[in-house]
Amino acid sequence: MVEAALVFPLLLLLTMGAIQYGWLFLKAQQITNATRQSARLAIRPDSTNAEVLAVVDSLMASGGMSGSGYAVDFTPPDIEGLTAGQALEVKITVPSASVVLINAGFLPVPANLTAVVTMTKEGP
């Protein structure tokens, strides 16, 4: 009993940490996929900022992060103004406090989950 009382809290902490970090890795992968898909849409010659933002909203909602307070940044900010061959960077940042599964102060987590994708604009 004494050994179980000493080991059980550590085992519980280890289990909760594995679940928490697994969840954060899942959300980070979903953010990366949303960033990559939105960048692939943004590099098309006929794409607009509104179309790309609508796709990001849809992908974040399907990942359960629609109300997470995420931010989308384009570099340069105007997709329509790009010409073929120019680089376009899409960045999505999500505060990790809004996607954590267990809000425990004893587990270190990053402040933000961020994904950045850079692609070259397509066109004639």
Mean pLDDT: 91
Number of domains: 1
Order of helices and strands: HHEEE
Counting DSSP H or I runs of 4 or more residues, the number of helices is: 2
Largest sheet: 3 strands, antiparallel
Rg (C-alpha, Å) = 19 Å
Which range does the strand content fall in?
15-25%
Low-confidence stretches: none
The shape is elongated
Distance between the termini: 74 Å
Percent of residues in helices: 40-55%
Describe this structure as you would to a colleague.
The protein is α+β, with helices and mostly antiparallel strands. The protein has one domain. The protein is built from 2 helices and 3 strands; from the N terminus they run ααβββ. Strands 1-2-3 form a 3-stranded antiparallel β-sheet, with helices on one face. Helix 1 packs antiparallel against helix 2. The longest helix is centred in the N-terminal third of the chain and has 41 residues, at 2-42. It is elongated.
Task: Give the gist of this structure.
The protein is of the alpha+beta class and 124 residues long. The chain has one domain. The protein contains two helices and three strands; from the N terminus they run ααβββ.
Chart the SSEs and their pairings.
Blueprint: H1 2-42, H2 49-62, E1 71-75, E2 87-95, E3 112-120
Antiparallel strand pairs: 1-2, 2-3
Helix pairs in contact: 1-2
